[in-house]
Amino acid sequence: MSTRTVLITGASAGLGRASADHLAHTGWSVVGASRRGTVGKNWQGITMDVDNDASVLDCVTKTFLEQGRLDAVVACAGWGAAGAVEETPIGDAKAQFETNFWGCVRVVQAALPIMRAQGGGRLVLMSSIGGLLGIPYQAFYAASKFALEGYAESLAYEVAPFNIHVTLIEPGNFKTEFTQNRRLVNALPDDPYKTAREKAIAVMERDEVNGADPMDVAKVVAHVLKGKSPPRRVSVGKLDERIGIMGKRLLPFRLFEKAAKSSLGV
Hints:
By secondary structure, the chain is α/β, with parallel strands linked by helices. It has a single domain, classed as NAD(P)-binding Rossmann-like Domain (Rossmann fold), CATH 3.40.50. The protein has 9 helices and 9 strands. The protein has helices at 14-25, 53-67, 90-118, 139-159, 178-181, 194-209, 214-226, 239-250, 253-264; strands spanning 5-9, 29-34, 44-47, 72-75, 81-82, 121-126, 164-171, 183-184, 233-236. Strands 3-2-1-4-6-7-9 form a 7-stranded parallel sheet, sandwiched between helices. It has a two-stranded parallel sheet with strand order 5-8. Strand 1, helix 1 (14-25) and strand 2 form a beta-alpha-beta unit. The longest helix is centred in the middle third of the chain and has 29 residues, at 90-118.
């Protein structure tokens, strides 16, 4: 089983890096893709810009030709924008989708012909609890993950006849470089959202800095790739964050929203 090959995007840091390190440790042949082309201790690095069609296709093809197989893709590349919806330029919102959503789509579309030809494969897409619960002052990040949820659910029906399995991983807050790399939107001159925005961002940054260990996500990824019947969705993180998913499903929305406000800093 040591010949199984997995391509991981966003492997230079955070959840992608943790997944690459752990899967390499458990016997996978790991190719970690990132814009920086970072190389791991026991895995190969490759330079890929998920925002670019040609870069993605070239890297997926190169990985397959060098490895001889492509058994799994773990799509972790992404970043977060923070700011009020009204103050966010459309270009910034599109950039958020370009990486978080379309970057994932590009990698999947490049991998699917290979997986169909070899008789199967696994697609693990890194979503977020923010893909199930809206987050104030991270509306376009949440929207990109909500879009990924619908895309993956639809995709799963289409590729199931080819023995290709799709799983969404939905992390809560984890202690990674994601916090430092968040891009803040430039505020309007009079900035009517200043007080509320700063409070909400401070809450989210506090929760991330005190977040769970990224290796928890890596272990879930490994479990999903190993399982015979992988689940469609797996949430991972602290219990109080995951309870929010259940609360949204079961509670009347007004009650859920009232309960969620304080935890979201609004």
